[in-house]
Amino acid sequence: MTLQQLIYSTKIAETKSMNKAAAELFISQPALSTAIHDLEEELNIEIFIRNQRGIIVTTEGENFLSYARQIVEMSSMLKDRYSSEEMKTNKFSVSMQHYSFAVEAFMTLAEEFKLLDYELAVHETKTAEVIDNVEKFRSELGIIYQSEFNRKAIDKILADRALEFIPLFDCAVFVYMSADNPLAKKKCITLEDLDDYPCLSFEQGENNSFYYAEEMFPTHKYKRVIKADDRATMLNLMTGLQGFTLCSGIICEKLNGDGYTAIPLETNELMTIGYVKRKSMPLSKLGERYISILKKYEPK
Fold first, then answer.
1. Report field, pTM of the whole predicted structure over 0.85
2. Would you say 96 and 130 are in contact if contact means Cβ atoms under 8 Å apart?
């Protein structure tokens, strides 16, 4: 088994086509097929099933590829770290739940490195995709929260994928809403106060377990619930329907505008903001700097 064969197998899985993979790898399709056949023979497993529609990854193949991707990514990291200075590129990718402060921190990072060559990526997405992106090396870090309710479940999910959650800081729970909402005048809000207003929740798609919810108290029986996919729609619903969501209270007016406010919720529960990373893998220079920027958002 060679590194080249691992690279070949991950590229096939990515493109789901022998022809496309061969083209992107700049080798012939027969040579690629032979390399994969030899790999499967050596390991005594079937990684791919070939049919007229393309390539299907077997269950054994998925397990194999989870390890292969790690080796290929680590090989790439080694090359980036130790190649000549002229060839180095600053690469960093982060995935996150829908946190404007995490996006703002990313913008600060990009601004700091603007005089250097870099390749950056940011993904504001569903909880399950945040975790998937870190596991599959699409992102170095994933920004999520934990609470007393979801901590054990999330930690088990991460442990099963060789990932870990590193806490950054704790936040009280706030009600985030339009500044025109009648409740915006209150110093503190109870769950009962919210009964007459629609609760806004980020859609989690197929992974709609309560443990993946981005909002605190996902099992509370709200009278009205509206689900949305993105932060901009959430803000529109807050303004147009006087909706609310529960959050950390860290507001970024630069991104969301000044027409919104966060009022403390009457509860002793806390949100722990932190990041997901691969176990035993050190952070890159950009990853370390991004985390240091995030820490500045810790509530005083």
1. no
2. yes
